[in-house]
Amino acid sequence: MDITITHAILLLVTGFFAGIINTLAGGGSNLTLPALMMMGMPAEVANATNRVGVLMQSIVAVFGFKKHGKLDTDDKVPILIPTVIGGLLGAAGAAYAPTEWIKPLLLGTMLLMALVILVKPSMIAPEYGASVNKVSQTPSSWWWLGVAGFYGGFVQAGVGFVLLAALAGSLRYDLVRANALKMLCTLVFTSVALVLFMIEGLIQWLPGVILAFGTMFGAHLAVKMAIKARPEAMKWFLFIMTLVGCIAAYFS
Is residue 212 within 8 Å of residue 58, measured between CB atoms? Predict the structure, then answer.
């Protein structure tokens, strides 16, 4: 695929903002997927190519949160197992499922999360210092993490909200630590999805790598923002991004 200077700038800019949004909340792919499709990519190719940027931003974010001591790893294996299984199944589904399924799934997820944040915000944003539950203590978290993995493997856009529902809502991590674990989960199931998309030959590497540079810079900045932000500010940012995600999903 030929990449013009305009395309490269578009991918870098949208990637940068998507890296910030995905690291602090979710839904950044609502920017990058349309950008990729504007270049003439079919939806399934854009969906696959987008994962290159998601993978690289996740690596940057995970190392950033770890550096600042915000990445809890005591329970990481029980958290990752259902997420990876779900991601594998979701990626397999995305490779073969009709593309018209993506929009209703994305819009439904955004609307559900907006409703939860509006009606019961404590479910998504527990108070800082709240007692954290282990996966072994909350069997329902296996279901939530598996659903998040499947959704992320299938469509990616908005998966951050589903992961936050499992990590903050079910396991009671505060938003900063939930975001750190969210990026770790995203890193793992995106790696799985990327391998399947590579096998299917769905990835356009040059635009994917250009996009990745933007997402990496965005994720680096977002980690610093997350560390310094007040919990209330993080909660409002999450709510606003959910509403934006609803609008983007409706008009995409």
Answer: no
Tokens of 182: 């969210």
Distance CA 136, CA 133 (A): 8
Angle at 91 between CA 244 and CA 208, to 5 degrees: 65
Q: Which residue has the higher pLDDT, 13 or 83?
A: 13
pTM: 0.79
Q: Name the percent of the chain in helix, strand, coil, to the closest 5.
A: 80, 0, 20
How far apart CA 61 and CA 160 sit, in angstroms, is: 13
How confident is the model at residue 91, as a pLDDT?
73
pLDDT of 186 over the 80 cut: yes
Ranking 54-58, 60-64, 197-201 by mean pLDDT, the lowest is 197-201
Model pLDDT, residue 114: 63
Total of domains in the chain: 1
Q: What residues have CB less than 8 Å from 154, skipping those under 6 apart?
A: 90, 91, 93, 94, 97, 102, 105
Domain range for 77: 5-251
